[in-house]
Design brief:
With about 400 residues, this protein is mainly α. It has helices at about 10-25, 30-45, 45-75, 75-95, 100-115, 120-130, 135-165, 165-185, 205-210, 210-215, 220-225, 225-245, 250-255, 260-290, 290-310, 315-330, 330-335, 335-345, 350-380, 380-405.
């Protein structure tokens, strides 16, 4: 076995991860806010009722996450991902044909199942397996692609909706998702370096430096009975609720305050641009300064940025919010798989992170409609923002505890 070639194949895995996250998260998740008002007003839905479809997709993804973890370890990753990416793309396109909440909810189930095996879990698994050196950087790059997707497709979605319809937007985006994700699953992805006769980046030297805990790590059964697993699960849940509860309501919130939809989506695009830089930088900071410092920095930034929303009727405050929030929400995607590998090891990483990803999707399932229902109840998002700042404070404290307790800095 050899650790590299002219171009180490692990960087092709990074490119594959970028395509998958660009489509599966950057388009599907990060453009949802643009659809809320047009679809709800067109079909007579409440915001809470419509955004509940995202909860259903997240719950389906949550239920399938541990199953996908086992399937990805046991079977050819290309086969599993080809099926899942096809289901994901087709489901998103089918939203164009929905006219009732029930139809949105049914299609959302298939979207969630397909998503479970298309991006977060398989991409995190591949990066963890292919990289020991530069793992944080590689993880940051693949998840930065979600911001690129949002940066491009938020204004594009708004333009298509304004000039054609939200139905055309769902259909076109579904086709784009398929173009980026399905060929990637078929031709590029590989679960482990051994599948190409290679060692992870860094090879034997990196393996020698890597801690015994990370090389071996806990079995899935041991992890599930450990306090560290449940602390990580709670952290992931709270951060996801706060992150997603804000993210998908930025455009409606800004337009409620008098910004045009064009300005609101431009600010959303600024946020997505910063997300790209933030995720790459977060991974690099984790490599250089350690996970604990990187995590606490991002959590403080997340709390401050949410607080800025109270003054976002001022353009300069809205701009500062977009920049800071875009940078800080890297804490939701880049750091959890790194923390999992460090604290619990790599022995059964796919299964363990598959279970932890339940809490990512559960947080998504709660946060998105929670903001919608709070708005429906109070006619304001302010109560929701206060709640999310509190959740972030708790998550920061628990993150510090699990890092120090595990001796991982």
């Amino acid at each position: 076995m050899k650790s590299g070639q002219k171009i180490f194949y692990g960087w092709w895995i990074v490119a594959a991860g970028c395509f998958l996250n660009f489509a599966g998260i950057g388009i599907i998740m990060n453009t949802m806010g643009v659809f809320i008002k047009p679809v709800a007003e067109s079909l007579g839905f409440t915001r809470g009722g419509f955004t509940l479809y995202f909860t259903i997709a997240a719950l389906a993804m949550m239920i399938m996450a541990p199953v996908m973890g086992k399937l990805l370890e046991r079977y050819d990753i290309r086969l599993i991902m080809t099926i899942c990416t096809t289901m994901m793309a087709a489901s998103f396109a089918l939203f164009s044909q929905c006219r009732t909440l029930t139809q949105f909810y049914v299609v959302a189930v298939f979207l969630g199942i397909g998503s479970a095996g298309s991006h977060i879990i398989p991409v995190s698994l591949m990066i963890t397996n292919w990289f020991i050196d530069k793992r944080g950087l590689a993880m940051g790059i693949v998840f930065a692609a979600t911001g690129v997707g949002g940066l491009i497709f938020n204004p594009l979605a708004n333009w298509i909706i304004m000039n054609y319809s939200w139905q055309a937007t769902y259909l076109i985006f579904g086709l784009i998702i398929g173009v980026f994700s399905i060929p990637t699953a078929i031709f590029i992805v590989r679960a482990r370096p051994v599948d190409k006769g290679l060692l992870p980046l860094g090879g034997e030297a990196a393996l020698a430096r890597q801690s015994q805990a990370e090389q071996g790590g806990l079995t899935a059964t041991q992890a599930f009975s450990s306090g560290a697993f449940w602390l990580l699960a709670l952290i992931i849940l709270l951060v996801a609720i706060a992150n997603m509860g804000v993210l998908h309501h930025i455009v409606p919130y800004l337009t409620d305050m008098g910004f045009s939809s064009t300005t609101a989506t431009a600010l959303m695009s600024l946020h997505m641009a910063m997300l790209v830089f933030g995720k790459v930088l977060a991974g690099g900071l984790a490599d250089r300064f350690g996970l604990l410092k990187s995590y606490l920095t991002l959590m403080i930034g997340l709390m401050v940025s949410i607080a800025l929303l109270y003054g976002a009727q001022l353009m300069w405050v809205a701009v500062v919010f977009s920049i800071m929030f875009g940078f800080s929400i890297a804490v939701r995607t880049v750091l959890p798989p790194l923390m999992t590998a460090k604290v619990l090891g790599q022995k059964h990483f796919a299964v363990i992170y598959g279970f932890l990803n339940i809490f990512t999707t559960l947080g998504t399932a709660v946060g998105v409609p929670l903001s919608g229902f709070i708005y429906d109840w109070t006619k304001s998002y302010h109560m929701a923002f206060a709640l999310y700042i509190g959740l972030c404070l708790i998550a920061a404290a628990f993150g510090y505890a699990v890092m120090v307790r595990g001796g991982k800095k």
